[in-house]
Amino acid sequence: MTWATITTFIGLAGWISAFVMLFIIPVNRKPSSAIAWLLLIFLLPFLGLLIFLLIGSPKLPKHRRAQQRTMNEFIRQTVAEATQLPEQDRMLAPQIPARYEPFVRLNANLGNLPAFAGNAVELLPGYQEVFECIALAIDHAQHFVHLEYFSLSRDKETEHVFTALERAVSRGVKVRVLMDHLGSRKYPNFKETRARLEAAGIEQHLVLPLHFPGAQFTRPDLRNHRKIVVIDGTVGFTGSQNLIKRNYFRKDAIYFDELVARVSGPVVAQLEAAFITDWYAEAGILLNRQAAPETTLALQACGDMLCQVLPSGSGFENENNLRLFTSLIHAARRTLVITNPYFVPEDALMTATTSAAQRGVGVTLINSEVSDQFLVSHAQRSYYEELLKAGVKIYWYPAPVLLHAKHISIDDDIALIGSSNLDIRSFQLNLEVTLVCYDARVVAEMRRIEEGYLHKSRLVLLGDWQTRSASEKLFENISRLTAALQ
Q: Which of 321, 308, 311 is nearest to 267 (CA)?
């Protein structure tokens, strides 16, 4: 065969492969994502096909999704049984105000967790303060401590949390730890951290461990991004902050500001439901009364707030968090404040946000001037002009701090805080968890924190933004296209 024949054959094979993908890629995939993948494969047939085979599926494998369904049914039955107890009926089956009923029902249908009353919520904006509060709560643990983090590292700033865990084990408390494999392994103390946990007698598992292609292969960028701490089923923590030093071992000047919620009351059991789901997936053990009697929960009211937890991710059939966020933004009447480091909205979220501003809702987006991810940052900024023209106010939190907090406040009575970014990755790929608080006191506390952000930040003006360089616009357009390859 001549080189011309070989070249022709390779070219023909590439085009045939690309044509075949027309019958595969668009199935159950959003048009924008399908078009991006097909464009890549038609332009670079063999490389594009290889990339698609590695990261083209936005869902966990079938057996993992089956595990999620098993846990959904277990959680549903557990909640149903608990609501039959007269002393728990007011907490677990409360009267839901008409204003919240659509969102409570939506979340319950998506994540199988209804709204619980009788809770107390405290917002913790101080980075080191969070570690101190967690360590203090661990020191009061009597039965069990469950930790789950995307990034987990034993370092100078987190040391007292780990020593508190060791003290808990020494007095007979059962401690279990989950850490995302890819999210934790890249930090220098990864092996030492795992060794110290094992030496202390702490049971640990890597979440979504990396495997070469084969029976155990899972798309490597499907990650568990949740941050959950549950202590004795009575106190819980969730939010944006990982268990790692504030600068994430970075070589540059960037460090992070976060927001974490400390919760007590029956809703802690919902955070525990998310944890035991992930434990079941990684350890193959269901932490029920038989396998883990110490985790049997005695639910008690610790306040009077109505709260609900929504788990989301590629183990579910729906994009749970996207549906929640979009529904709440459409329901905003007066004020909407979105604080998130990565705002790369898909079409429904973008339409909801701009429509809210255009119908007279005061919409504020708090981003950071600095970013730790080049492509995500530029993809995010590609949406600024449309947002600004719609009337959305955009503020930049000043460098070198990256405001990594992830929360939304709607009007004066609904607040969301959790691990979820507002991008395609968090909607389709990452496992996330969101705490919803239907309470004006939580919103008032969140407003004070938001005002602190705004006091430090500068307003992005449309006229100034339109004068940015042609190279910046090019990077934004390219980054926006790559964001659809999910």
A: 308
Q: Are residues 123 and 14 in the same domain?
A: no
Residues 291-327: tens digit of each pLDDT? 888 888 778 899 999 999 999 998 888 899 999 999 9
Q: What is the pLDDT of residue 477?
A: 87
Please choose, from the candidates 211, 248, 272, the residue with its C-alpha nearest in 3D space to the C-alpha of residue 61: 211
From 283, 406, 402, 297, select the one nearest 343 (Cα to Cα).
406
Instruction: Identify the CATH number of the domain in which residue 105 sits.
Output: 3.30.870.10
Query: Of 310, 328, 346, which residue constitutes the final position of a domain?
Result: 310
| Last residue of one domain, picked from the residues 271, 289, 310 | 310
How many structural domains does the chain have? 3
Asked whether residue 315 is domain-assigned, the answer is no
**pLDDT one-digit tens code per residue, 203-259:** 999 999 987 776 667 778 889 999 999 999 999 999 999 999 999 999 999 999 999
Count of H-run helices and E-run strands, the chain: 19, 17
**Can you tell me the distance from the alpha carbon of 10 to that of 310, in angstroms, rounded to the nearest whole number?**
48
| SS3 annotation, 172-198 | CCEEEEEEEHHHHHCCCCHHHHHHHHH
Residues 354, 245: one domain?
no
Across the strands, what pairs with 62? none
Range(s) of the domain holding residue 11: 3-55
Please report the pLDDT score of residue 6 as a whole number: 57
- Let me know whether 177 and 279 are in one domain: yes
**pLDDT tens by residue, 336-359:** 999 999 999 989 999 999 999 999
- Pairing type for strands 228-231 and 203-207 reads unpaired
Tokens of 420: 């979820």
pTM: 0.91
In a domain, 342, yes or no: yes
Q: How many CB atoms lie within 10 A of CB 108?
A: 16
CB-CB neighbours of 67 under 10 Å: 20
